[in-house]
Amino acid sequence: MLFVHGYCDHRDCFYCPLGENRKNVDQVFANERPVESDEDVLEAARKMDAMGSSITGGEPLESMERTTHYISLLKDEFGADHHIHLYTGITGDREIMRDLAEAGLDEIRFHPPVALWGNIHGTFWEEILYIAREEGLTPAFEIPGIEAETEFLEFIEEGAVDFVNVNEFEMSQGNYRRMHEQGYDRRTDHMSAVEGASEDDMAELVSHPKVYFCTSTFKDAAQHRNRLRRTAPNVSRPFEEITDDGTLVYGVTEAEPARLDELGVPDEYYEVVDGQVEIAWWLLEEMVEEGDIEGGTIIEQYPTWDEQVVEKTPL
Ligand SMILES: C[S@@+](CC[C@H](N)C(=O)[O-])C[C@H]1O[C@@H](n2cnc3c(N)ncnc32)[C@H](O)[C@@H]1O
Ligand code: SF4
User: Per the database record, which ranges form the Radical SAM core domain (predicted)?
Assistant: First the structure.
């Protein structure tokens, strides 16, 4: 997921999920990693063996130079099979569709304003779907699951869009105040999903064969887990265990490297990082149990750029 910037001057959706760290920032992020160079973007994609990329923001069409630059960069590096899709909350025009297609974009997912969902016919949101297709892009909708209008289903039926992804309506730090004001509440059994917006609540919309519902649990858990699992083998050190969830487990100890050498620990089973020894957790556990060294901690962390720690277990 490439975040090109946090600006969105054309829309002001009350449910926009962008939090303080993303809203109106000029910084590019590849997943959670701040990007300083093109190589950072390529490295982030390589690390997770990405088969494709998505371009988001803010509003990617408000910075076409940056957006097309990254699309070309990814296509040039990973080839035609690397599928790239882009999310947008504005229509753009023919020239923009052409520039995106020429840069290598495969698919564009429009997010029209909710007030129009029952009434897309005859608007430029309809026309741009045909234009995008003529310029070589696959046109789709990707919208939050707020309400299902019958007219919207009829519109989908007519075939201007290839498919419609509906994201379960979510509350986040960035939007909960405004969502509350609009009368939305969080489901009590869920961290972010909105009451009254589950797949069952959207049954009429989701019943259409071109409509796919993406639950927030799936987005958070399954997609995240898949990304971790693909990333872990590319970034793990030889002495780290990769768990089924794609996290990395290793040990940390204050013991001197010389003591490890004395105990016959092979070089490839530990590394000194910031003055601490990071080591295979099973060796650390055994050495602490045997009283060979004084203590340590087992760390489980994400294989991501920010190395977020999931669990610490003192020995
Ligand atoms: C944050 S937007 C950024 C890209 C672009 N500005 C747009 O709106 O498509 C990315 C995706 O998030 C979805 N989205 C926005 N607010 C949401 C919410 N509260 N719950 C679930 N999905 C949401 C939008 O439909 C869009 O597909
Ligand atoms: S169009 Fe996208 S980025 Fe802009 S306010 Fe709406 S959800 Fe947020």
Answer: 1-209
120 alpha carbon – ligand 1 mean position (Å): 18
Q: Would you say the CB of residue 112 lies under 6 angstroms from ligand 1? A: no
Taking a C-beta distance cutoff of 8 angstroms, is the pair 170, 193 a contact? Answer: yes
Q: Check if the interface score ipTM surpasses 0.95.
A: yes
Q: Which ligand is nearest to the CA of 86?
A: 1
Residue ranges and CATH numbers for the domains of the chain are 2-230 (3.20.20.70), 238-314 (no CATH)
**Is residue 262 classed exposed, middle or buried when 0-12, 13-18 and 19+ CB atoms within 10 A define those classes?**
exposed
Exposed e or buried b for every residue in 87-98, given b needs 16+ CB within 10 A? bbbbbbeeebbb
- Residue-wise pLDDT tens digits, 240-283: 999 988 999 999 999 999 999 999 999 999 999 988 999 999 99
Write out pLDDT tens, residues 52-105: 999 999 999 999 999 999 999 999 999 999 999 999 999 999 999 999 999 999
User: Separation of 173 CA from ligand 2 center, angstroms?
Assistant: 15
- Atom number of ligand 2 nearest to Cα 18: 8
Instruction: Give residue ranges with CB within 6 A of ligand 2.
Output: 8, 11-13, 16, 18, 58-59, 89, 111
pTM for this prediction: 0.81
